[in-house]
Amino acid sequence: MTDTYLNLVNTGLTKKLAKKLGLPRPVPLVRWKPGQPLVAGPVLVVGSEHSEKDADAVATTLLEWDLDVRRTVEPGQRYAGVVVVLTGIQHPDELGGPVLSVGGMLREQLAPAGRVVTLSRPAVADDAPAVAAARQGVDGILRSLAKELRGGSTGNGIVLSDGVGVGAPSVLGALRFFLSTRSAFVDGQLLTVDSPAGSVPQDWERPLVGRVAVVTGAARGIGAAIAETLARDGATVVVVDVPAAGESLAQVANRVRGTALQLDITAPDAGERIVEHAVKRHGRIDVVVHNAGILRDKLLANMKRDRWDSVIAVNIAAQLRINEQLLTSGEFTHEPRIVSLASTSGIAGNRGQTNYGASKAGVIGMVRATAPLLTAFGGTANAVAPGFIETDMTARIPRVPREVARRASSLQQGGKPVDVAETVAFLVSPAAGGIVGRTLRVCGQNLVGQ
Amino acid sequence: MAAPRTNSTTPSGAPRPATAATPGTTAGVPGPLAPRRAVVVGGNRIPFARAGGAYVRASNQDMLTAAIDGLVARFGLQGERIGEVAAGAVLKHSRDFNLARESVLGSALSPETPAYDLQQACATGIEAVVQLTNKIRLGQIESGIAGGVDSTSDAPIAVSDRLRRALLDLSRARTTGAKLAAVAKLRPKDLAPAAPRTNEPRTGLSMGEHQALTTAQWNITREAQDELALASHQRLAAAYDAGFFDDLVTPFRGLPKDQNLRADTSLEKLAKLRPTFGLGLSTPATMTAGNSTPLTDGASTVLVASDEWAAAHDLPVLATFVDAEAAAVDFVHGKDGLLMGGAFAVPRLLARNGLTLDDFDIVEIHEAFAATVLSTLAAWEDEEFCRARLGLEGAFGKVDRDRLNVHGSSLAAGHPFAATGGRIVATAAKILAEKKAALDPSEGDRPVRALISICAAGGLAVTAILEAA
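^ Those are the sequences you sent over. The predicted structure of the assembly is below.
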């Protein structure tokens, strides 16, 4: 639905007024369109002490992508992106240099819809305390910096596990995703790359060519956007929804030139029927996106059994059963990808959503434990946790809480279904093979939870 | 990966060699192809709505387009050039002279898909299947979509003949005098619209009154009719519950299931309804709104193809469309009942194919009225009728009730006239595929067959044989 406030603070007299009053001024986000350049301007690459080699490697990669790469902050120069390489950092003392050099250019020299991306390593128990402190420090810097950015700019971090180089496919994939407008509503997030698995696609613009993807709950909203985005990226798409939603499901199928499968995902044989349809009609099954979900909100004190059970059945139990049938089918073996829809309610909790929160937190646990089962086939399972997304579902929230929810993020607005879809498309791409069992938030850096 | 969607007329890209005739050995030019089998790939329909119900503002074109688009979505036919689309409606606006083609143009199919309209009363839908499968068998097309649609809610209303003539005269008149003369002939009563009627033009009787005569002739009881109606509702409801229609029906305008379906009806409820037909006869009136089909809106489509086309598109093959036979009875002079055409067509069809009623796993007899089905069954069991009217040596045979309309029929689903044929063919084809897959190994690879009989206005009937592919 229309964000009236966003329109008001970006037009005419009300724009001036909002500025004078110091009101939140969200700007319309730039979304990706095929043919758009990866980054619309020069990209600054800076590195910390002990990270010079990695910084050079990143700069070389960006040059190979035909980007205008700069290594120092030049006076008066505007930058569309900033990559801060902190992979070799040894002590918190080393953070100040690179971070402050970026800080000095943020206000005047970062273009609107600019991108800041950090590359760092995770702090683990085996680290020397100073190393761990420095590494974990990146987390605090990134999340705080992202909250300072304005004008639709975002800050995100890539965390490279041990043994993962800056040239690993998933690091490259994540770097492209965070630098591009595909990640318009992803902000303040640190995404871990677990392994060097995955492959660089032949064509970054159509990484899913030759892949067959199944999207549940695809008749409308986020599911329909996921189907459209996967099809745009080259996939053959099977759209699934309950028979009662068949009319809009057929329209989505015809838009994406895929096939419609009317199916209740809670059916005991739903997974088998999905595999059968995909393999018989399209020859294979590579990607399953568990998007179907329901809400039955009630305070726990008033929660009835049926409201609890139906949410668990649709939002998590069905996914578990379908995954089991995918894994035992013998067909889900070509670098398979599962992406499941979690929610910020599953991370931070939400009043009245114990059932929903249980199911969505359950999804986060499920992908963590499912991903290792797929690595033998070059596969992964990950989750996407949307925050406030403008859909038919959130349009039914009463006006005042809806307005509060919209502004309660660094980007000060709700996301669009396509923002979730772009993130799903990244996670199912060949390049994301090294991202194993993670949950990526698409929330504009919503204030709740981590 | 999906096979490339090609527009070639044959999968091989070139006509197969003719085997029916060889140049030089017989007179004339050989046809493009020898007869081959035509198969049912699947179907799609929208739920059927009661007249004045969910589709009250939907036109025939809206509904047929939706039914085609649902079929396209199910089978991934976006942008596909189908060999031919044949569809029709019984109640049709004159502006819909190209209904099938206009619906194709509004659908996700390739705009280069040819289409034509046809009309054979309530047999329109099945006749579309007959024609397209014949073309496939002859090699004229590789794929086809047979469709049917009807709206009693958006039925055409005509002006009276006198008003129509006056308006036409007026449009031709050149002078003021002539114009005035054209208008002056009109009388107030001429302005009343002429509502569409389904009464038989030659007898003036409604279909229900005609059936009431037949019902009385065959002594069909109220109880037997109500039992058949109950079975229809219960079986259709059970099929929906089992998900049988998940890949046969696509919701339309918010209606997920057939609006006429009463899953909770009972013999008691049906017994309470007052008779509506046959009230003027000397025998007791037995036909009620519960055991007669209501006026309905809806559309259906069936995807038919050659084996080669289906294989090239990675599509399933449910059943072979084996053969069909039409019949017509002389109801005008009261020789036979208006809706008894099926009783005559089926014996001829089975004789030609060397089959008996016992050779069929399922029998689908369109439930125009419960009594229509029961009269047909009674006629086939009646030795005298079969000898005298069908020319057989004895009774034609008996149809077990557990093979008859196994997932319900028109009494429960409703009957949008031209859409019924497509509904029955797609339903029967899917049942056959399921039965074939579930055959006990001890039964070997025996044929699994369906018999379809659809009666129509004008004393017509079209019947057909399907066999699991």
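Chain A has two domains: 38-193, 212-442. The interface with chain B takes residues 210, 212, 236, 243-247, 249-251, 253-254, 257-264, 267, 280-284 of chain A (CB under 8 Å).

Shout if you want it in another format.
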